[in-house]
Amino acid sequence: MPDESALPYPQLTPYLFYEDVPAALEWLAATFGFTERMRMTEPDGTVNHAEMELGRAVVMMGCPGSDYRNPKRLGPPTAGFYVHIDDVDAHYEHARTAGATIQAEIEDKPYGDRVYGVLDPEGHQWWFAARLRT
Asked: Which of 2, 26, 39, 84 has the fewest other C-beta atoms within 10 Å?
């Protein structure tokens, strides 16, 4: 088993399905501060795979195709993504100002995190948090 601290990539990486991957890349960068690290485009211009990062976190994404569905088509979110960041208050204000759909206002939780919840344009649920105490 490899030494996880020596891995050059995250040990767990979610793969999200977006019907409009280019729009998702732009929105995640502008609203949440992610940075695009890879984009694979088909000859017809379809983005079939992309990767974004925020700190050491990586999110992979692609088009749902006929075999997969995303929350935009299914209805409610099918999973939530919990992201630890340094300044959750500034992140919240930026996301709110950018027009993100805030699902849960920012608040201190009894388990020691300051958290807010938000949906992206295709219905994926994100939680951003900062540790208040360990």
From this structure: 2
